[in-house]
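The following block was generated as part of the benchmark described in Methods. Ligand: 2-acetamido-2-deoxy-beta-D-glucopyranose.
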Amino acid sequence: MGLRAVLSVALLAVQCLASPAPKPEQANTPAPRAGTLKFTGVNIPGFDFGCDTSGNCNEGAAYPPLTQYYGADGAGQMTHFVNDDKYNTFRLPVAWQYLVGYEVSNPLNTTNLAVYDALVQACLGTGAYCIVDIHNYARWNGAIIGQGGPTNAQFAATWSQLAAHYKNESKIIFGVMNEPHDIPNITLWAGSVQAAVTAIRNAGATEQIILLPGSDYASAQQFISDGSAAALSTVVNPDGSFTNLIFDVHKYLDSDNSGTHSECVTNNIEDAWEPLAQWLRTNNRQAFNTETGGGYDDSGCLTYMCEQIAYQAQNSDVFLGYVGWAAGNFYVGYVLSELPTDEGNGVWTDVPLVQKCMAPIAGAQQGSTGQ
Ligand SMILES: *[C@@H]1O[C@H](CO)[C@@H](O)[C@H](O)[C@H]1NC(C)=O
Ligand SMILES: *[C@@H]1O[C@H](CO)[C@@H](O)[C@H](O)[C@H]1NC(C)=O
Ligand SMILES: *[C@@H]1O[C@H](CO)[C@@H](O)[C@H](O)[C@H]1NC(C)=O
């Protein structure tokens, strides 16, 4: 998560001027907006709780965001997001350890898989796309997959079993790994990703999207410069094609791209999205922004997030969409909360950032006013 240069106010002013207000005869032409993107969604965390960036995941800390397991009403949240906001995608982070019962050489733990699957089925039940995200930072208890830690075969075995379980579900998306970082050898990491892709396809999940993450916490900004783009470009399906192999990129809007500050300081366009869009177009590939977010009621976030989403929508040939961080089991008041508040009587209220920028329906409203 290297520090980036902060865009100057002057530069941002220029970018704002670059999208002129619609002339009267254009007023009925909606501006590009979230609804133009194929996938718009929210992360529903909980099964990843207890994991740190070293891939240590404390046993007993996974916290299902489901009321039947004493968690938040993740199922109700997703239903609200689909019905009221017109989202169509949820990302469902889970600790690798949880899936295999905290022993890396284990097969999938049927008890734990059934609990996680309750969230997946609740997601599928809304009609949305559901991203199965192993939230381990390319690691298991501090050691890197294929580079001193678990073998590629062990990693592939988990994915083979998950893919066999979900192979008939066209709306499952396989998120191979959350936020690899400090990867000593990116070529070797691409080999680990290849092992997962091959395992998923050979298990019978031949059509679904698979998300390929680079290093630097899957940074959209560093994807090219850190070698992730070149290395991951070699990952192929068993038939040699790149069909539905999509790059997984993250980007926050705070001062150090950490997603820990409430203030947003950038729309990421100049430093991240624009160069990435050019690279993707040149190389005939696509990316999906599966984590982004900002302070839920920060005036900077309300500006910059809307700008980021509008830019992604303008470039929907190469950007498939975004997934906000986060709802699920986070607490009301969490700095990046996208938690809707359940008012009872089936009424949910969204935080301002979701209401005004992130919800696809908010984009429709922007479009209708030409913003
Ligand atoms: C699943 O893992 C848990 C630990 O999380 C363990 O107690 C349980 O025995 C395992 N169950 C199966 C069916 O492997
Ligand atoms: C997938 O569909 C096939 C064909 O209908 C069926 O035989 C198989 O049991 C299904 N597998 C799963 C995991 O649901
Ligand atoms: C990465 O690993 C590959 C394959 O073992 C090796 O050829 C290459 O030299 C390594 N690169 C670095 C930078 O260590």
